[in-house]
What we know:
The complex is a heterodimer. Chain A has a domain of 71 residues. Helix content of chain A is 75%, strand content 3%. Chain B has one domain. Chain B is built from 15 helices and two strands. In chain B, helix 3 runs antiparallel to helix 4. At the A-B interface, helix 3, helix 4, helix 9 and helix 11 of A face helix 5, helix 11 and helix 13 of B.
Amino acid sequence: MEALSTFLALLAGGVLTGLVFALVAVGLTLIYGVMDVVNFAHGEFLMLAMYATLGLALLGVGPLLGLPLVALALLLFGIVVYRVFVRRLLAGPPEATVFGTFGLLVLLQGAAQALFTSDYQSVPNPPLQGTMHLGPIALSEATLVEGAGALVLTAVLFAFVEYTETGRAMRAVAEDRIAATLMGIDVQRVNALAFGIGAACVGAAGALLMLSYPVFPTVGAGFALTAFVVVALGGFGSIHGALLGALLVGLLEVFGGFYLSPELKLVPVYVAYLAVVLLRPQGLLGRR
Amino acid sequence: MSGAGVRTNGLALAAIVAVGVVASFAVHDAVTLDLAFTLLLYAVLGQSWNWISGYAGNISFGHAIFFGCGAYAAALCVTNGVSPWIAIPAGALAAAALAVIAGFPTLGLRGHYFSIATIAVAALVETFVRTAPWLGKANGFELPIRSGWAAMQFPSKGPYVLLALALFAAVQLATIALERSRLGYYLRALRANHAAAASVGIGERRTKLIAFAWSAVIASVAGVLYAQYTLFIDPPSTIALAVSIDIALIGVVGGIGTLWGPAVGALVYVVLAKGVALRIGGAGKGYDLVIYGAIICVIAALRPHGIVGSIVDVLRRRRGAAAPDATIACAP
């Protein structure tokens, strides 16, 4: 009974963690799908969102109320970054996007360190500090809200890409950029919007994460690495794939951390990445 | 590279070595010598990265693990009473073996799949080191203090600069040889178009494994020298992702796939990032990262072939000649 309730608690924890990973990863996979760019600075966008949430909290606007504001700010930030910077990278050789977004990673981390110091900072008096009991398992309210919020937002993004005219345009650009141009789609506009929406996803994820995590300049690196693994597992460019990959990674991390040791919690995640890219390079749900 | 090109590059290298040798004896200012050592060490690491990521085009973000092989080999040798000179072949063997084990499955991956795989492998290696008691876990090693050439430890920094200079010269000469060798042509052909290269019988895995192993060997020798210089190593200073990023950025700034790119990248890194950080208020405050990140962004957006690559482009355009790579890269 003891073992079973531990197992169920880990399962629930893994799924909830996975849902937050999914929200981070769908942003990455949307950007990749539409314009073939792996945004290595994705984790730093998350870090910016977490600092923005912290800033709002210090002004008296809590993380949940601040979420739409932070997501909107990241949307605009993403569009500006695309218009000013990423657009130019796309004109260069293929490795330019890797180096360029990596440079952005270094720049943003350095800026955060210079402006906010390397200290761990948390939202003062965060809401949802209680524990909820669901049958035999106990879950913290913050984790529950993070998971549920991430699920809702991932579903909203999915519906947007699947059912709206703009979403259709994004899928058309992802499918064939030149054909999309010939159909009268403004590829630059679609790219900019996709980059902005990808950033808005981590904006929302950052606001949710501040319910239970501290923020520090390199906080994004861990999440970004996980997101790369998630996206590769699910197949670069696939939104369902990202959701599936995120749940798998969340479970691997939580079970690995419990049954191996906390230091080794990421080992199964990286081994899974290597296994997938070697055995099924298109990912679980990706297309070649 | 033409015969005249080899002569020019050889003369330039000889001039650098001459200036370096004189400086290592004439200069006694510890800060200057420290900058010179760091510059040479980073130039070697950048060149090591350049072999696999520049010439072969497989961008690695995990190169620090090979640097770590050398550093840990030195630490293990010296703390067990073995000469650090033995650590050079020992570390090189370990690095080459690790490169073959890590490279065999992953070198066939393209673009970001390979880059992310190198991050994953490096993270696994770092986790291994951090949990292995015989590798000092997270604490690392403090090397016992000795003195003299047999112990590869010196009270002043001059001899270290000499050793780093010798390593730099050897690596530059090896790279000149690489550019003119069959291996070098195969690598550039694979980078330009792997399908076309395979169709003329170039074995991708075999060719890239050889380059990866040599690249790892170069980085490991730099690691031995680093451990003997600082006499303290731990995971953050040797194998962490941050070190891998530094190595890759040096390669990118100077210009990937060029002979002098890593040296120029190291110069920019040491002078700008470290120099400015010292002036504004020490490292660890992030200013060096801001400046360095901004440089990378500007180069990636405006001069994606790096500093040396752009100079080469300009020179070629002035001569009106087509880029030699273009003859390989005409397909598809």
